Input
Amino acid sequence: MPADERFAVRRESARASVPRPLTAAPAPAGVPLPPGLALRGRLATGARRPETPGGSGRGGSGSRTPRSGRGGGPRRAYERARRAWDRPLTAYYVILGSSLLITVLGLVMVYSASMIKALDISKPATYFFGKQFLAAVIGGGLMLIAARMPVKLHRGLAYPILMVTVFLMVLVQVPGIGMSVNGNQNWLYLGGPFQLQPSEFGKLALILWGADLLARKQDKRLLTQWKHMLVPLVPVAFMLLGLIMLGGDMGTAIILTAILFGLLWLAGAPTRLFAGVLGFAAVLAFLLIRTSPNRMSRLACMGVSEPDPEGGCWQAAHGIYALASGGWFGSGLGASVEKWGQLPEPHTDFIFAITGEELGLAGTLSVLALFAALGYAGIRVAGRTEDPFVRYAAGGVTTWITAQAVINIGAVLGLLPIAGVPLPLFSYGGSALLPTMFAVGLMIAFAREDPAAKAALAMRKPGVRWKTMRRRVKKRSSGER
Output
């Protein structure tokens, strides 16, 4: 056999030995093929799977589509921050954290700003700091007690606190019992170096009593009538204002008026009624300022950049000097120059100026951010509750702290008259610190009363976690290891 024929025979035999793929026989018209047979038929004929755009194959680069949001960016960071802020316990932690940070930073600045003043009066350098630290410890205890008290107990304390406060404010005006400090007859002597200013507790008393009063009237649907909205809230507030003004404390009277307006605003006072009360208060304030040379001189010191030749506006001008010399990051903690006798009251009303001089713009902006966070968290607590008492009380406390901080900082910056009010939780003064920390504990209690916050706090208790873990563990037989 020729070689060409032998090669052809071998090729045909090799083809016959290779197994051919099964092909689907053509089905009759109208008869569908079984799924498995149809699939084998497509694979046998070499049909390919549809390719995705941008690549082919299982391992191709175009087979996966990028997930939206992966890769970060400002929008993703904003969404994370928004979700974190919407958590149930956010207001609770913000109120607790910001108030404690303000108090701790205030203790540091009180020590730095008051050491020269203490040495000047022949006292130890830690004299004012020790008193403020003791007040902070007592105030921390009051804050913890207020945070653990139920809302019903807070409402029950409204009338007793108001009655005790009024009694002490009347006692201040009795000759031989009340004390005069810096021209204001608003102090009670407690023995030793300790004094008490009852008008500071009047702010807390008005908030608790006014919130309870408005909540009861709202439950009875009486706030739609203007006489029920004003009486007896406004007369009692004017009684407290009169007792404060007898002692000459214009600054505390302004804060009390702001609290009254905040309560009326939350109660839904109509614009004409609100404007009428505001106009009456403005006329009364104008008359009180006009008839007092001291208050007129404070009003004339707004916006001054240097004291006059006769020594007027000395405090306002040197407060601006302290802020201007601080720069971006300040001269350093304890390195203030203005506290060496140039700036009066560096540890009380003008402690913000010393903060700007020693910690700079960064330090002052940090203090402002902490107060802004505290105020916003208070607004959140007041806006998300269904309890009218909680709404009025939280709104009143937020108005109190925010208005007092704005008035104090505005006076230091030269934008407002010097009212003589301390910076809440920051300035020296135990009489101001104690009721303010109790009010912060009040807001913490309100933040804990939110149903979602209650559930979140309950899940974080160790007992609940242990029981939850025990439910998830499968029970094993006695012989299983």
Strands lie at 178-181, 184-191, 194-196. The chain has a mean pLDDT of 82. The first helix runs from residue 3 to 17.
